[in-house]
Design goal:
The mean pLDDT is 95. It is built from 22 helices and 11 strands. It is mainly alpha-helical. The relative contact order is 0.08. The structure holds glutamic acid.
Length: 501
C-alpha cells in the first residue's frame, strides 16, 4: 500500500458534533496506525453558512480531543491551500478542462426553468433530475456567451455507469447512472459544488482512503463519475454508520449533549470522550475491552473491525468512562480543569489560581472524584467544604436531632472545649481529641460521629472527616471568593445557633 493519506474535511457551518468527531478520530487513528498523514481540510464553499468563528472553534475542539494534523489551514503543507475558498482557481481550471475533454458543458438554465422541470418530474412520479437540455448546445456558442458575461454553471455529462465501489465498511455498493443526472460541478457564482471540489482536492492531496459518514454514500457515485471523467483512479472509501440516540432515531440536539463543546462544558475529559468515540462502531481485536489508552487505540485500530450497523450513543456509558478516567487523572491537571466550574459556582476567584490554591484543589479533587461523573459535578460534590450555615444545620429536618439530643450536645460540648485548647487543628490532633471525647462521654460509633459530622457540615453524610478536616483547615487560610470556614469556626457557629455553651 502506498503511504496512507487521509483527511478530515469539515464544513465550518456549526459546532463539531459526535458524528464528525468520530469521523475525525477514525481518520486520525487510521493515519497514526499506518504511520501515514492526516490532513485537515476546511470545506467552506457554502459561503452563506460558513463562518470563520466555526473554523477556529473546530480547530480548538479537535485539539482538545487530542488530535493533531500533519497538514492543514493553520500550518500549511505541501499540498495546500487547505481551505476550499482559497482553491477556487484550481476547481475552475479542472472544470474547464472537462469541458475541453467534452465531458462537461456550460448550462444556462435559470432557477425557474429548473424548478419547473423538477415539479413536472415530481408530478409524473419520476425522480427529479436535470433533463440535459444544455448538453446539446454547440460548445463554441456557449463559450461565446460565457465570454460575454452571461452567467452559467458547469455540469458533468454523465455517461456509462453504473458507478460502484468496494466500500471498506459496506462492501460492494453500486448506483445506476440514471439516478444521477448531469449534476453541477461549478455554480454560476463561481463556487464549486461539493461533489466536484472534494474530488479535485482528494486527488491533488493524494488521499488514499476517504473515511466519512454514511450520509455521503449517495454522493460517492457522483464523485466516482468525476474521477472517471478526469481519468483519475479513485481512493478507497469507508462509510461509517449513522449514530443513533437511545430511541434509535438519528442522534440530534434533542437527545441532549451532542457537540464537543457540550461535552467540554459538562466536564467530560477528552481522553474519556476519545475512548468512547473510538468504540462507536469499532471494536478492538478481543471484542470486549472497553478501556483503551491512546497507544492501544493506535496499535489496534483497523478499518476491518468497523461495523456497518448503526452505533447507539449512550451518555450513561460515556459518564461511566469519564468516571474511570477521572479516577486515574493527574490531580494537578484535574485541579486546573475543575477550577472554572468552581469559579462559575462563585467559590473561586476567576483566572488567578496561585500555587497554594491549586495544591488545595488537588486535595479537594482527590476527596470528591470518586463521587462524580463529570467535572461539572465538582461544585455540588464540594459544597460542604465551601458552604456552611449553622442555623440551617441546627434546624433542617435531616439534622436537627443533633441540636436537641442531650447526648449529642454533650459530645459537641466536650469536643469544642478540647479543640479550643489546640494551637492548630490537624486531622491527627482532631482524632486524638475525638478519642478523648469518647473516653469522657462514653459515646462511640454513630452516637459519637453523627453529631460531629452534622455540626461540621450541616449534613448527615458526606466526605470522610479524614479528608474534610484538612480541607477546611487549609482552605480557611486561602484567598477564596467565599472564605472556607475552619473546623473551630464551624463548631463555634453551631454552638451559637444551638445555645450549646
Ligand atoms: N464537508 C463534508 C462534510 O462536512 C465532507 C464530506 C467528506 O468527507 O467528503 O460532511
Amino acid at each position: 500500500m502506498s503511504r496512507v493519506r487521509v483527511r478530515f474535511a469539515p464544513s465550518p457551518t456549526g459546532y463539531v458534533h459526535v458524528g464528525n468527531a468520530r469521523t475525525a478520530l477514525f481518520n486520525w487513528l487510521f493515519a497514526r496506525h499506518h504511520g501515514g498523514a492526516f490532513v485537515l481540510r476546511i470545506e467552506d464553499t457554502d459561503v452563506e453558512r460558513s463562518q470563520e468563528a466555526y473554523e477556529r472553534q473546530l480547530i480548538d475542539d479537535l485539539r482538545w480531543l487530542g488530535l493533531d494534523w500533519d497538514e492543514g489551514p493553520d500550518q500549511g503543507g505541501p499540498m495546500g491551500p487547505y481551505r476550499q475558498s482559497e482553491r477556487k482557481p484550481i476547481y475552475r481550471r479542472y472544470a474547464l478542462q472537462l469541458i475541453d475533454l467534452g465531458r462537461a458543458y456550460f448550462c444556462f438554465c435559470t432557477p425557474e426553468q429548473l424548478e419547473t422541470e423538477r415539479q413536472e418530474a415530481l408530478k409524473a412520479g419520476r425522480q427529479p433530475m436535470y433533463s440535459g437540455r444544455c448538453r446539446k448546445r454547440p460548445r463554441e456558442e456557449s463559450a461565446r456567451q460565457v465570454a460575454q458575461g452571461q452567467p452559467a454553471s458547469i455540469r458533468l455529462q454523465i455517461e456509462g455507469g453504473p458507478f460502484g465501489w468496494d466500500d471498506l465498511v459496506h462492501g460492494r455498493t453500486s448506483f445506476s447512472s440514471d439516478v444521477i443526472g448531469d449534476f453541477i460541478l461549478m455554480r454560476s457564482d463561481g463556487n464549486p459544488a461539493y461533489n466536484f471540489a472534494v474530488v479535485i482536492d482528494d486527488h491533488l492531496m493524494d488521499i488514499t482512503h476517504v473515511i466519512r459518514g454514511d450520509d455521503h454514500i449517495s454522493n460517492t457515485p457522483r464523485q466516482l463519475a468525476v474521477y472517471q471523467a478526469l481519468g483519475w483512479p479513485p481512493p478507497q472509501f469507508a462509510h461509517l454508520s449513522t449514530i443513533l440516540g437511545p430511541d434509535r432515531s438519528r442522534l440530534s440536539k434533542r437527545h441532549g449533549a451532542t457537540s464537543l463543546q457540550n461535552f467540554r462544558e459538562m466536564g467530560i475529559l477528552p481522553e474519556a470522550l476519545r475512548n468512547y468515540l473510538a468504540l462507536l462502531g469499532w471494536s478492538p481485536h478481543d471484542g470486549v475491552t472497553e478501556i483503551l489508552s491512546l497507544p492501544d487505540l493506535i496499535a489496534q485500530f483497523s478499518l476491518d473491525r468497523i461495523t456497518k450497523s448503526p452505533a447507539v450513543f449512550d451518555q450513561e456509558k460515556l459518564n461511566w468512562m469519564n468516571r474511570h478516567y477521572l479516577r486515574s487523572a493527574d490531580l494537578r491537571r484535574l485541579a486546573r480543569l475543575a477550577a472554572p466550574f468552581l469559579v462559575q459556582a462563585g467559590y473561586l476567584p476567576p483566572d488567578k489560581w496561585p500555587e497554594d490554591v491549586l495544591t488545595w484543589l488537588e486535595h479537594l479533587l482527590e476527596a470528591v472524584r470518586k463521587n462524580i461523573s463529570t467535572l461539572a459535578e465538582v461544585p455540588a460534590a464540594a459544597r460542604l467544604v465551601f458552604e456552611y450555615d449553622a442555623e440551617r444545620a441546627a434546624h433542617r429536618e435531616e439534622t436537627r436531632d443533633v441540636a436537641r439530643d442531650p447526648a449529642a450536645r454533650e459530645v459537641l460540648k466536650a469536643l469544642i472545649s478540647k479543640l479550643a485548647a489546640l494551637p492548630e487543628v490537624t486531622y491527627a490532633r482532631f482524632r486524638e481529641v475525638v478519642k478523648a471525647v469518647q473516653e469522657e462521654t462514653g459515646k462511640k460509633g454513630k452516637e459519637l460521629f453523627h453529631p460531629i459530622r452534622v455540626a461540621l457540615t450541616g449534613a448527615a453524610s458526606g466526605m470522610e472527616l479524614e479528608k474534610l478536616i484538612p480541607l477546611l483547615e487549609e482552605g480557611s487560610k486561602l484567598p477564596l471568593t467565599r472564605p472556607v470556614k475552619s473546623t473551630t469556626e464551624r463548631l463555634r457557629e453551631f454552638a451559637a445557633a444551638t445555645q450549646l455553651l
